[in-house]
Amino acid sequence: AIDMAIAVLANTNGEDTILLPQPSFPLYNTLCSSRGINVDFYKLRSDRKFEVDMTSLQRSLESNKLNAKGILLNNPSNPCGSNWTREHIGDIVALCQEFGNLPIIADEIYHDMVIR
To answer: What is the mean pLDDT of residues 34-45?
Structure first.
């Protein structure tokens, strides 16, 4: 499903970019590379349970604003095991809205494994 979402959002023209978390599941980069889609990485903060570094994400959005076609989020995170708050996810959504409602690919495959 992730592969299909990437394929729908980005062209293989060598210009489109998908934003990926760092660190992240290595397959995301492989899926983009195999389709000729550029990637740019935004950082996760190890000091904050691997939440998205909002400054890093904003920089990535600004430097790719013409070519960014989507952002991939992985929550709960693989390989970091973190689980973000609703507020943090809301902050990410708000930032994506500022950049033309940039689509979010939400990989939440492990959502049922979260201890509540």
So the answer is: 95
Chain segment 68-108, per-residue pLDDT in tens: 999 999 886 666 667 788 999 999 999 999 999 999 999 87
The conformation of residue 40, written as its DSSP 8-state character, comes to E
Helices (H), 1-116: 2-9, 27-34, 54-63, 86-98
The CATH number assigned to the domain with range 2-110 reads: 3.40.640.10
Considering only CA atoms, which of 1, 4, 9 is closest in space to residue 71?
Answer: 9
Using omega within 30 degrees of 0 as the cis cutoff, is the peptide bond preceding 23 cis? Answer: yes
The residue type at 60: S
Q: What does the chain come to in residues?
A: 116
65's tokens:
């604003």
Assigned token pair, 26: 């290595």
Q: Model-level pTM greater than 0.85?
A: yes
